[in-house]
Amino acid sequence: MKETPNSALKIDKIPDPDRQGCDCSWVKFAHTINGYEAAGGFAECAELVEPGRAKTLTELRCALFFMSRADRHSGTDSTDCQELHTLLRKIRAKVQAREFD
């Protein structure tokens, strides 16, 4: 997957969790960052999934990345997960406000 720096993110390329019929496009978007590398390792990335822990755009993206990896390894589908939708809303808000970190 091609990584995308925060400054290059476009709001229309970030999945909208409030859109009717939300699909799994969030997984593809989640992999536009290497969360393990950006967070400083597996454990650091995992900690960012804790509600309210991720604050910056990079941290929010790392948390989303970790959720996608956890889904893949557990065989679950989080498309209806409230935490997932909250992360996407926060990421979209940061990009819209041009708060790239």
Oligomer class: single chain
Instruction: Give the biggest sheet.
Output: none
Write down the overall mean pLDDT.
89
Strand content: under 5%
Low-confidence stretches: none
Based on Cα principal axes, name the global outline: globular
Q: How many separate domains make up the residues?
A: 1
- DSSP, total strands: 0
Mind telling me the C-alpha Rg? Answer: 12 Å
Number of helices: 5
Percent of residues in helical segments?
Answer: 40-55%
Structural class: mainly alpha
- Give the termini separation: 22 Å
- N to C succession of SSEs: HHHHH
What does this structure look like?
The structure is a single chain. The protein has one domain. It is 50% helix and 0% strand. With 101 residues, it is mainly α. The protein contains five helices and no strands. Helix 4 packs antiparallel against helix 5. The protein has helices at 25-30, 35-39, 42-47, 57-74, 82-96. The mean pLDDT is 89. The chain starts with 24 loop residues before the first helix and ends in a 5-residue tail after the last helix. The protein is globular.
